[in-house]
Structure formats: C-alpha cells, structure tokens
C-alpha cells in the first residue's frame, strides 16, 4: 500500500450490522516478522462471536470480550469494503468484509461469507474467518480493557512558530490551516509502524536514485501531506505535525536514525519546503 493511498476518504455507503461466529479458514503469515505477534492475536479470534456495526466491532468468547476496536472505512469496491481498526497498542490493521454485491453472490452460490483481519502491508499477515450464523445472546458480563477512540488519540493543535509561518504564508499550495474548528477532533490512527516499513524500503533505494537520505525523508512527509490535501482540499496543522512527528519517531526505529538531528530540524525542513 503506497502513501498516496493512505489518506483516501471514502463515504461509508455499506453499513454493517451483524453478529456471527468466527471459524478460522486460512492464514497467511506474511513477510514481516515484527508483525507476527498481531498474527497470533488474530488467530485467537477463532470460535469467537463477532458483532460488527457501522463504526466498530467487538469479539466475545463466552462472557469475555477479547477484542474491540473502532472501524474507519478506507476504501470500497464491488467486491469488498476495507476498514481500518486499531490493536490495543494503537497499531493499525485492515478488516476486509464482503460488499453488499458480493454478499448476494455468496448467497446465490451458497458460499459462506468471510472476513479477513490483516496487516496494513499488502504482503503482510492475513487471517481469514468464515462467518457462521449465530442466534445466541450478545450480552457481556466481563470485558477486557480495550481502548476506544479518546481525546488522546486525536492529533492536538499546537500554537508555535510554525503556526505563525502558516498564518503569514503568501504561498501555501496545500492550504495548511490553523483554523481551530478544522483542527478539532480529527480521526487519526498512529502511523509510526506503517511509516517505518515504508521509510526502510525507500531509504535503501537512495543511492541508486542519487537522492540524499534527508531529502528522501522530507519528500516522503510532503507526499503524505499532499495525499491528505488531494482528498480534503486543505490540511489541518495538527495533521501536518502528526505526520512529521510520527515519521520522525519511525525514523528513530531504523538504521537511519541519525540522518536528521532532531524533530524540530525535520519540522523546519518540511514547513520551509511547503510554505513560504
């Protein structure tokens, strides 16, 4: 999945409301060993009862909820709807459900509906389950502590020297804005791990492309910001800061941690290339 696609906004036209039993169907371990722990967690969903609604899902075993997450529609086509959820540590993952059209086809061909939980990477882990009929009670007596979306998960607007730069800019092609209403409670999932995988791949190619590693990081951030702009027509400063901060955090987890001195150095480079 490329960074051009990540911020694609889609309308949720196919709203889900169902309760089913999960039966493990197949597993793809993927090419990212550091995600194997998430693969193991997803496998535990087997024999659980899943309840899906338009914006969240929960999985229960007996009287215990073992997983709950908000769901954000990422993209949709004639075959399936792709949602994004969060593991308890805020690591994002994909949820692939059949579209309404596919559901009708599965009914006509007497096939069992499926759902897949998987990595954000196209070649990452994927665990697919059959959705079996379930008519039992969905009451819960005991739940585990699984965080839902809270204020701490919204990017926070910061009034700083870059706010002044945005305010006074005569050239602001991505329409970065300090408007408090547009910066308030924006849905966002921590992208550090996703950025890390993308950066490691990109930075390996710098020598072949004749591009400096620092410039590659700045270009990567700018491209992510442009992706948001292409779909919204503006970019809240809180989102600009979140992308820069999580890119820097991702960089610190790679062999290239020392190519940029500190977070403010990266912010300075990015803001100065975006607005004048």
List the main descriptive attributes of the protein structure presented here:
disordered N terminus, ten-stranded mixed beta sheet, elongated, alpha+beta, 276 residues
Characterization of this structure:
This protein is an alpha+beta fold and 276 residues long. 34% of the residues lie in helices and 24% in strands. β8 (114-118) and β9 (126-133) form a beta hairpin. Mean pLDDT is 83; it is low at 1-16 and 138-152.
What's the arrangement of secondary structure elements?
Blueprint: H1 3-6, E1 18-28, H2 36-43, E2 49-52, E3 56-61, E4 64-70, E5 72-76, E6 80-86, E7 92-98, H3 100-108, E8 114-118, E9 126-133, E10 142-143, H4 161-168, E11 176-177, H5 192-204, H6 206-209, H7 213-232, E12 235-236, H8 237-251, H9 263-274
Parallel strand pairs: 4-10, 11-12
Antiparallel strand pairs: 1-2, 1-9, 2-3, 3-4, 5-6, 6-7, 7-8, 8-9
Helix pairs in contact: 5-8, 7-8, 7-9, 8-9
Label the structural class: alpha+beta
User: N- to C-terminal separation?
Assistant: 31 Å
The biggest beta sheet, please? Answer: 10 strands, mixed
Bin the helical content.
Answer: 25-40%
Radius of gyration: 21 Å
Q: Uncertain spans, ≥5 residues at pLDDT below 50?
A: 1-16, 138-152
Shape type: elongated
Number of strand elements: 12
Sequence of secondary-structure elements? HEHEEEEEEHEEEHEHHHEHH
Strand content: 15-25%
Q: In which order are the strands of the major sheet placed?
A: 5-6-7-8-9-1-2-3-4-10
Total of helices: 9
The mean pLDDT is 83
